[in-house]
Amino acid sequence: MTLRVALIQTRTPASHAGALDHVVPLISQAAQGGAQLILTPEGTNFLQKDRNLLAAQLTSLEDDPVVQGLRDAARRLSVSVLIGSALVRRGDGQAANRSALIAPDGEITATYDKLHMFDVDLPNGETARESAVYTPGDQAVIAQAEGAVLGLTICYDIRFPALHRALALAGAQILTVPAAFTRPTGEAHWEVLLRARAIETGSFVLAPAQGGFHEDGRGTYGHSLAIAPWGEVLGKLDHDEPGVLFADLDLDQVAKARAAIPALANAQPFSGPVPLP
């Protein structure tokens, strides 16, 4: 089975209205190019570094105007859309960084809240404390779209191989990694981490990214990538400008890669090591 996908690279503005105007034409371009499954980056609905301005714009997933607009677009274009993430308000009032899978009828069929919070002090002086804003999820998620099984992750999750292994063991053929990677970490680690996760699990990896310098002052790396189960790069946007990356996935390659290197099946339980005194 061959599945045509499109990865949307954005430079999302700091408002819902601006974000929707930015992403819908790219979704339409992807659909016109024959994509059956279209993936957007982390923070598709808006990006805002200022915590007070961010909090003022958060709504529930169901009420978010960008989510509503992309549900309408999926229905109108008869495609599946993975919103890589929307920044939303949870039912308990806390904030979540949430992926949402939309079927061609416009219904949301699966959601995933980012598990791993990006709390770091980078060597260049940049700091990030996602846990001060968002409540992490506690559940790994797989979902079906266009005849394929997706394993949902978001950005910093890429640094945690156990999550991707668990998704593959649960049947995921495609690992989705929507991101808004920082420029220093992107330049150093983005492609090698994505290829490693593909090779370790024998899965396709699809990583639509934010790119460039945004209205809220942040800089993101771009360079969206589609990677095959053997680790080869199927396609790349080798820049940080908005755009669409198409890839045709032969899903039979997943079983072939996992049979050739049966790392998922060969793993052994172990104990230790005991920490040194």
How would you characterize the overall build of this protein?
It is a single chain. This protein has helices at 16-32, 51-57, 65-77, 161-169, 183-201, 252-260, 263-266; strands at residues 2-9, 37-39, 80-89, 95-102, 108-113, 119-121, 127-129, 141-145, 148-152, 174-176, 204-207, 211-213, 219-221, 225-227, 233-236, 243-250. The N and C termini lie far apart (54 Å). Helix 1 runs parallel beside helix 3. A hairpin with a 5-residue loop joins strand 6 and strand 7 (127-129). The longest helix is centred in the C-terminal third of the chain and has 19 residues, at 183-201. The radius of gyration is 18 Å and the shape is globular. Strands 5-4-3-2-1-16 form a six-stranded mixed sheet. A six-stranded mixed sheet has the order 8-9-10-11-14-15, with helices on one face. The model has no long low-confidence stretch (mean pLDDT 96). The chain has one domain (2-264): Carbon-nitrogen hydrolase (Nitrilase/N-carbamoyl-D-aminoacid amidohydrolase). The protein has 277 residues and is α/β, with parallel strands linked by helices.
Query: Span from first to last CA?
Result: 54 Å
Helix run count: 7
Number of domains: 1
In total, how many beta strands? 16
Proportion in β-strands: 25-35%
Mean pLDDT: 96
